[in-house]
Amino acid sequence: MRIALFTTCVGDTLFPAASIATVAVLERLGHSVSFPEEQTCCGQMHANSGYTEEATRLLRHFVDTFCGDEFDAIVAPSGSCAAMVEDQYARLARRSGDEQLIRAVAALTPRVFELSQFLVEELDVEDVGAYYPHRVTYHPTCHSLRLLRVGDAPLRLLRAVRGIDLVELGEADGCCGFGGTFAVKNAEVSAAMLADKCRAVLDTGAEVCTALDSSCLMQIGGGLTRQRTGVRTVHLAEILAAQEER
Length: 246
Prior knowledge:
The relative contact order is 0.15. The chain has a four-stranded parallel beta sheet with strand order 2-1-3-4, sandwiched between helices. 52% of the residues lie in helices and 12% in strands. It starts with a strand and ends in a 5-residue tail after the last helix. Helix 4 (52-66) crosses helix 5, helix 5 (79-96) runs antiparallel to helix 6 and helix 11 (187-203) crosses helix 12 (214-226). It is an alpha/beta fold. It has two domains: 2-122, no CATH class; 135-241, Rossmann fold. The chain has 13 helices and eight strands.
């Protein structure tokens, strides 16, 4: 299968290891992965902040970059950005009144996937050959849980990882408090939500907290680091890419 990596702007700028791991997993499964260098931001921050025109310009650029028959699927190590495409692109396209853009978005959206969603639902794969001998807990991010509805796909992948000690996170569906600009505009509320999430992570005794979104891991990781807990945050893709050294 011909796959395009949608790295996301946060991933490209701050967490490239998640994108590198995504490519490693997909290539291990025998797929060809390309990285369209023209890609930029999906426009989520702009759309959520009310900057519709700016978001629509980024939507058009996304369509220009990924549209066409060159790729069978566009895969992102981000539930948040994949959800932006699935949940908001059609609405933005309709609001623009551009019929050609509306048709292009309708054709493109079904080919955009978050990594775990793509592996489990499209490829019907759960065991990707990973080995990760650590105690791990999984935080289901809001967009992946509520908009993409990935369900237990990430957990099914984690359960198939050899050597892992996967422990359940209490009150797992609670938000970490990031929410993009929410953490800036509502700092005190965000900090309280983060405190609850960090406490839940620590209660598991896990060495590692994993999730589908680098932005949420950045929020949780910041809280855990400031408390000097020693607990690390690691993107799901990095766990799936890990293998036993020979």
